[in-house]
Amino acid sequence: MPAHAxxxxxxxxxVRRLLDVSERQLRSWEKQKFVSAxxxxxxxxxxxxxxxxxxxxxxxxxxxxxRALDALRARLRDVTNPLTELKIYSRGKKIQVQFAGQxxxxxxxxxxxxxxxxxxxxxxxxxxxxxxxxxxARKHKSRVEAEHWFEKGLELEQTGAxxxxxxxxxxxxxxxxxxxxxxxxxxxxxxxxxxxxxxxxQHYRKALEVDSHYxxxxxxxxxxxxxxxDRSEALAHxxxxxxxxxxxxxAHYNVALLYQSTGQxxxxxxxxxxxxxxxxxxxxxxxxxxxxxxxxxxxxxxxPRPG
Length: 307
What we know:
- By secondary structure, the chain is mostly helical.
- It has 15 helices and 4 strands.
- A 4-stranded antiparallel β-sheet has the order 1-2-3-4.
- The N terminus and C terminus are likely disordered.
């Protein structure tokens, strides 16, 4: 396959890693039919999920998203999936959409003024503002530029671009915005997949310097030490991921495996049960049930046989 050919399908694990979305959230969007529940995801699904993640970060409720999508389908007859065919984003607590080069409010259909980032920055720094406000405008512009490079990195990953191009995009994002823990974690994962443990660990730890509660960074460090055969370090990092995100299903799964492999069946059983509560229907759940059944069987205390 050519280096830039679009990948046809993404697994749940790939989607969750690339977009940093929880299993619970992914299932919720599937149930609401915002994305397909077929078990694999195509490039259009990835675009839809990125839009949903952006709206979720702005705390836009699901009911408001549904109303907006229904209104867009009714208003724009040629559009079947607004999440993939239109640019949908939020301004404050409102959903807005870009259509035919103009911006509109989806439910009312009211067209909005279309300012690009340069024009917004000019408006923010008009004469008479104090220095603090100008600094704020510059920071905003930097964040926008960093987000552009972060999204570029995601796009390059999704289309199978060369590793060097992906690294360059995430590196630019992290250099422009040193507080971008997501870019640092994704950089680490690119190096992890290339089995460059030193660079991977360095970037995961940098992400934790930015955000000490970042569960995904702890989880990825756990994977790294697990790959290196350092079970105690792996376990410590998986448990840290759970401490900051108690519903982290994959972390519970890996902790259960580690406890089971180190002869701690009761602890393993606890984490298998938690995993199954969080992720009862995936293909991994069948493995979890099997391992839990084996542990239960091996830990049954049988009384003395009748004489």
